[in-house]
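[Q] Does anyone have a clean structure-token version of this?
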Amino acid sequence: MTSKIVNVDLSNNNYDIIINNDYFDFESIKSKLANRKIAIISNDTVAPLYLDSLTSNLSQYNTDLFSHILPDGEQYKNQASWLSILDFLAENNFNRNDLLISLGGGVICDITGFAAASWMRGIDFIQVPTSLLAQVDASVGGKTGVNHPKGKNLIGAFHQPQAVIINTSTIKTLPAREFKSGLGEVIKYGFINQPQFISWLDENSSLINNHDLHTISELIAFCCRFKTEVVQKDEKESGIRALLNLGHTFAHAIETYTSYEVYTHGEAVAIGMVMAAELTVLLEISHPHLRLDVEKHLQDFQLETKLSKEVDAKQLVKLMRLDKKVTNNSHRLILMKSMGNAFIHSNVCEKNILQAIINCQ
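[A] Here you go.
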């Protein structure tokens, strides 16, 4: 298969997202690999599946290869794991001319990028995402970071990769739950301002749910193109890029409250989008049926749309105060006037946020 290429053209960096259904395609970026030390950062779930094939592929480019393996799980996206990468780089004398490569899902993409941003004030890195969620979201756009005990992604930096290398066949080894989790982020793009994409997802739902790689490749390319267009307009999230966080303020609070052990990120985003729709209905900004319409599209892909009643809604609201979009102690949320028409809404009353959460339990 010929690779699909999505170019990311930023003022200080230009790189490609290279999508192939059969293998990790490094050929067009081989000049970025030769004659330098490379550390592959992965986890103990993904490394046994793909590390050997990746190192075999990279060995032809005259590189000096190392690997550092972390435990798998969102709970390990923390300062200790980040520091372990920096310790590894120090022990192996990595310098500013060397390179990191992520090999894994969203956690590995984020933490590898942050290590690259931190080491010697910034070295090159390449994203090799192996989960659907990472392929359509975490690997693209240059957001890197780790979680803090008080909240998700509170520590981080903007640091763009040198390339994103996607082999869509890695989804064949994804657990069903992780694949569905990725679809939460996929559907988000349609809900933001791409109603035609929602229709396309509906028309191709059977192929998507059955992991048809041709369809998945088209899906990933669409999401990467859409996110790239937004990032090119607003790399550091001073405006329109905030729309990509639809559902995320609720989701991050849910993940923090449950210690990342109950809901995957995509599941929390799906529930967060339902809450965002419910809040818009409560504010009488949208059609009363919006929440039901949002739920239906998510349920078509077997995503959960209700939050457990065991979660304390008041505590979620408190956790939401630490969201990076809060300004002057005022909640600033991404809501939907309709599916495919998201907007930024400031000064949202906590009473209404609380009621939206309760209504979605």
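[Q] Thanks! Anything notable?
[A] The mean pLDDT is 95.
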